[in-house]
Specification:
Oligomer: heterodimer
Low-confidence stretches of chain A: 1-7
Mean pLDDT of chain B: 92
Number of domains of chain B: 2
Structural class of chain A: mainly alpha
Low-confidence stretches of chain B: 1-5
Number of helices of chain B: 14
Number of helices of chain A: 15
CATH topology of the largest domain in chain A: MetI-like fold
Radius of gyration of chain B: 23 Å
CATH class of the largest domain in chain B: Mainly Alpha
Order of helices and strands of chain B: HHHHHHHHHHHHHH
Shape of chain B: globular
CATH architecture of the largest domain in chain B: Orthogonal Bundle
Radius of gyration of chain A: 23 Å
CATH architecture of the largest domain in chain A: Orthogonal Bundle
Strand content of chain B: under 5%
Number of strands of chain A: 0
């Protein structure tokens, strides 16, 4: 009954509801509605012609495959960084911990500028890579690297708190019973961090799908080869082809919304898991 | 330190080394290259590049946008967090999802939806134009789209914290005779200030660095609606690489400052 009483006791319901609703309506819902109306008004055939055109299909293929590979990299790097940051103490740990968030703090246009410069044929990285016949700039590899950079923090930041909270006594017990380090990891640690790891991967994938700033600098933007969906939308706007832009933006919006719901589901799974193991 | 070093297993040493190698290649070198390229023609050229009128204007516009957007984000973030952690009402979960949505969509989609609202063929664009109001390709459009992309930043730091803190402090203040504003200023705000600042710092970094959404709605008019990220892109496309890196160095400094503030806030307390 305590919650029932506090509902009437605490002030500010009307004020905060008003401000929140005003903001959500004007800043978020109205613009989304405007685009949905545009898509709704164009008819199913027209919509399908745009979203299933060869150029659009190529853009989905490039965007989704690049985002998927970037997420695999981020899963591995993220797990490594989260593990090292929670399990070991070493000099420079706090700096490493702070640096992990650089991709969130550094504007994506700056990231793109940096990456295209590093991987140029004479660049700091490019001069070692290009002679071996591997080209990054203006290829899909460049897109993957840009997407990887911009979503490095997600897996680290979702797995880190779970690793910190993991019960040491379980691990100690397993060790005394003769478990190998690998058994401890695969039977105790991995199942515990799995929901958080998955949530981090989904966030990383969603971010990569939508990434624009870092990618446009390094991708070269060749239709059918290095043209991502965001860029195709941008080109359609530039051509005043608003139907084309609206239909493709709708596809990305639906993808983002589905991934958001998936993340929320994974996070509540994790909360349930944590409660149960307590 | 020496005692712990002695007990490190080979696996531990390998993993720590790997972490540092990845961090150096993916994070430290990219940061270093910005300043190396910005300064490669000397300090004089660097300062001249920064003092370029269109770059100075872009810096000013970027700061102005942040000064307007971040305070609004703080106020709305507090309102949303207060609403969803202190009251139960129908549609609460929908409201949370709507606040989170902008962070999940592509910045290009964010810009596009604004085009369909305020553009010449948009939902409200023609009506507003009839009334003599042009929003698209103006600073107002940049501010609106920045408010969109940063919508969840402060709220998502405050919601878990206020959930966890509960309502006892506030109820105590009220029962001792405080009015609503006194409760907020003397009880709620001191409890949430660090988390609020943390969210604001992240929102600021996003506003100053936003590229995709702003590039759709700003029209990129040099000296008028060019924010810093757009200016960097234009200088790069003009083959003025050093100028581009000089402009980028200002945002890189902002990013480093963000990381330092963020890390010292995290060290401040167990609110996270």
């Amino acid at each position: 009954m305590a919650s029932k009483r506090s509902k009437h006791l605490l002030p500010g319901f009307g004020l905060t509801l008003g401000v929140s609703m005003l903001y959500i309506t004007i800043i978020i819902v109205l613009p989304l509605l405007a685009m949905l109306l545009k898509v709704g008004g164009m008819g199913w055939e027209e919509f399908w012609r745009i979203v299933a055109s060869n150029r659009s299909l190529a853009a989905y293929r490039i965007t989704f495959s690049s985002a998927f590979i970037a997420t695999l990299f981020n899963g591995a790097i993220g797990l490594l960084l989260a593990w090292v940051l929670t399990r070991y103490s070493f000099p420079g740990k706090r700096i490493l911990d702070a640096l992990v968030d650089l991709p969130f703090a550094l504007p994506t246009a700056v990231a793109g500028l940096v990456l295209v410069t590093l991987f140029a044929p004479t660049g700091w990285y490019g001069q070692f890579i290009e002679p071996n016949g591997f080209k990054v700039n203006y290829t899909q590899a460049g897109i993957i690297i840009a997407m990887t950079f911009t979503s490095i923090p997600f897996v680290v930041r979702t797995v880190q708190p779970v690793l910190e909270e993991i019960q040491v006594d379980l691990e100690e017990a397993a060790k005394t019973l003769g478990a190998t380090p690998w058994q401890v990891f695969s039977r105790i640690i991995w199942p515990t961090i799995l929901p958080a790891f998955m949530a981090g991967c989904v966030l990383s994938f969603a971010r990569s799908l939508g990434e624009f700033g870092a990618v446009v600098f390094i991708a070269g933007n060749l239709p059918g080869k290095t043209e991502i969906v965001s860029l195709l939308i941008f080109i359609r706007i530039d051509e005043y082809n608003y139907e084309g832009a609206a239909a493709l933006a709708f596809v990305l919006l639906v993808a983002a919304f589905s991934l958001l719901l998936l993340t929320n589901a994974l996070q509540s799974w994790q909360v349930r898991y944590a409660d149960r193991s307590r | 330190m020496t005692t712990t070093t002695a007990t490190r297993s080979p696996a531990e040493i390998t993993l720590i080394t790997l972490a540092f190698v990845f961090a150096a290649a993916l994070l430290v070198v990219p940061l270093a290259v910005i300043f190396a390229f910005a300064l490669r023609e000397g300090l004089g050229v660097y300062l001249a590049n920064i003092a370029e009128p269109s770059t100075v204007h872009a810096i000013g516009l970027t700061i102005l946008t942040a000064l307007i957007v971040v305070p609004i984000n703080i106020v709305v973030g507090i309102c949303v967090a207060w609403l969803v952690t202190r009251f139960r009402f129908p549609g609460r979960q929908v409201l949370i999802t709507f606040i989170e949505l902008p962070a999940a969509v592509s910045p290009i989609v964010a810009g596009t939806v604004y085009l369909f609202l305020y553009g010449g063929q948009g939902l409200l664009g023609p009506v507003l134009q009839g009334a003599g109001i042009q929003l698209m390709f103006t600073v107002t459009a940049i501010i609106l789209v920045s408010l969109f992309v940063t919508a969840p930043f402060v709220a998502r730091e405050l919601i878990p914290l206020m959930q966890q803190q509960g309502t006892e402090d506030e109820e105590a203040a009220l029962s001792l005779g405080a009015n609503g504003w006194q409760m907020f200023w003397f009880v709620t705000l001191p409890n949430i200030r660090w988390a609020m600042l943390y969210g604001a710092i992240l929102a600021n970094a996003r506003v100053m660095g936003e590229f995709g959404a702003v590039s759709v709605v700003s029209g990129s008019i040099r000296g008028q609606t060019n924010t810093l990220p757009l200016q960097i892109s234009q200088l790069f496309n003009d083959f003025n690489v050093t100028g581009s890196f000089a402009a980028a160095s200002t945002l890189a400094l902002m990013a480093v400052l963000t990381l330092i503030l963020k890390s010292s806030l995290e060290a401040k307390g167990g609110w996270r």
